[in-house]
Amino acid sequence: MNRFYCLLLSCLLAGTVQAQSELTLKTRTYRQQHERQLLDEFMGLLALPNVVYDTAGIQKTADYLAGMLKRRGIEPQRLGGKTKGVPPAIYGEVMVPGATKTVVFYAHYDGQPVNPNQWADGLKPFEPTLYSASLDAGGQPITLPKTGEAINPNWRIYGRSTSDDKAGVFAILAAYEALVQMNVKPSVNLKFFFEGEEEAGSTHLNEILERHKDKLKSDLWIICDGPVHQTGRKQVLFGVRGDINLELKVFASKRPLHSGHYGNWAPNPAMMLARLLTSMKDEDGNVLIKGFYDDVTPLTDLEKQALAKIPPVDEQLKKELGFTVAEGGGKPLADLLMRPSLNINGFASANVGKLAANVIPTSATAALDLRLVLGNDAQRQVQKVIDHVVAEGYYVTQQESITDDERAKYPRIARIVAKSGYNAQRTRMDLPIAQTVVKAVQSTVKGDIVLQPSLGGSLPLYLFDQILKTPTITVPIANHDNNQHAENENLRLQNLWDGLETYVALMRL
């Protein structure tokens, strides 16, 4: 390992406090003079439905992005793979005379599915609404001020993809425009790559990267996705967890049964599934599936040092979220994010609430989410789950329907279907270009930033390693309490403004 960069990282990990750069202060002045103009464009982007499975909405969003590039003097291109009908990656580039390095800035423009009925009264996913504070803090809807009127940085915008990930798209493009307006030349060649299928697992991203290898050549990809640290500090993330989802369904009777006539006799699939799931984890959240942790790549010494310097937030979060005992046997959240996990995202059987009936249901289904760390293989991790279910006495199939012969032969039947997934990725913290990124982000704040070996969430960044042989570093901007992937998603305005300053600095690496 290069001694110079070891010493540099050691200084950063030791908590060296730096002053904000002149460029950051200049960017702040620019933003203060253009806040309303910036918000108008952002609100226009947020108003476009972008659920990943909504083909028409995705196309309109892609068109809007192409227009944003064009307005900035960047010729937009739609990059596709070999599969037809896939959302394109919206691409543009700015080649800077004299630049010796090229950086690709990535964000995704698609969003998670929405259930409007779950959003708070007065909120609609694709009608972005400004609030005086978070809903939890009693925030109330407010009208966007007129040009020149004060805009409170603690106000929040509510709407789907405000934080995940239209904020990233907008911060990147707004940063480039700010440089142009301030007459500041980027120090690196800039390439912009906005994906349209991330929330569906980036199923065709590999095709796009393979087909456009030459166009996408660079020294680094900077990823704008995810939240800042829970303390509110900016952070630089050197990796992401992988992810793969499973549907686990257990079967019982061929038809629903009266719970009075058949209770205590007919097998209840909801109870069967509940027992099966509890066999997978202990009370501290440790996964009991054989070999689940066996192939984890150990952290390096530098990664351990970075982890030890992360400010503790566990007590803050428990109070904020309303529970007293966390999983993990007392280990801090930051440490637990370095382990693979198994989560239950949903559990369904018969009806509840006003629709509840006195029945024994025919089946029960759980949606499982496996988060992977470096060393895990997605398919191998799925097989471990399947092997566990078999060891619990189940016959496992992938078929949609269960035959009478199977019912006669096997007392316990489960169907397990894995969706597409991807492995984890981690970039070495001692790379010279990684340290350049750290210094750039540090230059935008007065206090320390947080360095994390890996984000808790997932992105298909292993593809950039595998196909393009290029390192990736993630620099998120959203507030940690943004409700991404859920109802009432929101973005604190100060996080958007901070993101603008961060990405201006990153274009001057």
UniProtKB/TrEMBL annotation:
Transmembrane segments: none
Keyword Protease: yes
Domain of life (superkingdom): Bacteria
Pfam families assigned to the protein according to its UniProt record, in alphabetical order: M20_dimer, Peptidase_M20
Alphabetical list of InterPro entries matching this protein: Cyt/Met_Dipeptidase, Peptidase_M20, Peptidase_M20_dimer
Gene3D superfamilies assigned to the protein according to its UniProt record, in alphabetical order: 3.30.70.360, Zn peptidases (3.40.630.10)
Keywords from the named record: Hydrolase, Metal-binding, Protease, Signal
Entry keyword annotation includes Cell wall biogenesis/degradation: no
Residue span(s) of domain Peptidase M20 dimerisation: 248-391
Segment forming the signal sequence: 1-19
PANTHER family xrefs: BETA-ALA-HIS DIPEPTIDASE, DI- AND TRIPEPTIDASE DUG2-RELATED
The protein's name: M20/M25/M40 family metallo-hydrolase
